[in-house]
Specification:
The chain is an alpha+beta fold. The chain folds into two domains: 79 residues, no CATH class; 36 residues, no CATH class. The chain has three helices and six strands; from the N terminus they run H-E-E-E-H-E-E-H-E. The chain is elongated, with a radius of gyration of 22 Å.
Length: 134
């Protein structure tokens, strides 16, 4: 009886936590959020879920990406013996370009020099400088 109670308490303790990872790009976040609940991953996450396509919805890029294995996600994974392990993916789009500093790089120009100028300008202004290729 004690062994069963200990086993049950251990299982509850192990299944009660969540896995949460966040990647922040440094761009200003906007109100636009793309969320995929129960994104399918397989074999304890060894086979990841499909890529979340954000190009059309996040025109200014991505500010933050969060992945999470909630209690429910982990419960589903446990019930399927880890074969199907769903996760939640949340992508926050970036707001518009807040910096006016931009260097246009045309064909034939020195790439190293353009990036060097961008780095110098960013260091002086303390703001990001964007290098655009035409």
């Amino acid at each position: 009886m004690r062994y069963a109670t200990l086993l049950l308490l251990t299982a509850v303790f192990l299944l009660s936590g969540c896995y949460h990872a966040t990647v922040v790009t440094g761009l200003q976040p906007s109100a636009e959020v793309i969320e995929k609940n129960f994104a399918p991953s397989w074999i304890y996450g060894l086979v990841p879920p499909p890529t979340v396509e954000t190009m059309q919805q996040c025109e200014n890029g991505v500010a933050k990406v969060e992945t999470e294995l909630s209690f429910v996600n982990q419960l589903v994974g446990a019930l399927t013996l880890g074969i199907y392990t769903p996760m939640t993916i949340k992508v926050t789009c970036a707001a518009g370009n807040t910096s006016d500093a931009q260097i246009l790089l045309e064909e034939g120009q020195d790439v190293v020099r353009a990036f060097s100028e961008a780095a110098d300008l960013a260091a002086k202004s303390g703001a990001p400088v964007y290098v655009a290729f035409e």
